[in-house]
Amino acid sequence: MPIFAILWQIWGTTAKLEILARIYIAYGFLTQPVHVFVATHLTQLDAQPEHEEQDIIRRAFSWSEFDQMVSQGQIIDAQTLAALSLLRLKRPDLAAYSCTLPDL
Asked: pTM for the whole thing?
C-alpha cells in the first residue's frame, strides 16, 4: 500500500513526504530495507482504519517529552531511534519542534 494511502486510511492525515533515507533493520543479516520519511504540511481528514487498526492510539509529543521517553528507555526500537537521528541530522529545522494533533 502506498505511504499516502496509509497516512490517510490509518491516521486520517495527508502530507507532503520527503524521503530521508533507506536503512536496513539488520544489515548483513536481513536484506529488507526500511524507508524513512518526514511528513510536512499535514492536513487532518477523517481516518478510515481497517478493523484490525481500530485500536491504534495516536498522540503528539513535544520534543522534550520525546527525548525524555528515549532517555528513560520507553522508546527503544531501532527504527524509531534511527529515524530520529536522521531527522536531526538531515532536517534540524524540523527537529526543534513538534506538531500538535487534535484529540480523538
From this structure: 0.66
Residue 37 lies in a domain: yes
Alpha-carbon distance of 11 to 5, in angstroms, equals 10
Render pLDDT for 21-61 as a digit per residue (tens, 0 to 9).
999 988 888 888 888 888 777 776 676 767 776 777 777 78
Q: Return the HEC string of the chain.
A: CCHHHHHHHHHCEEEEEEEEEEEECCCCCCCCEEEEEEEEEEEECCCCCCHHHCCCCCCCCCHHHHHHHHHCCCCCCHHHHHHHHHHHHHCCCCCCCCCCCCCC
Domain enclosing residue 80, as ranges: 3-49+58-90
Total domains present in the chain:
1
- At a CB cut-off of 8 Å and minimum separation 6, what does 63 contact? 95, 96, 97, 98
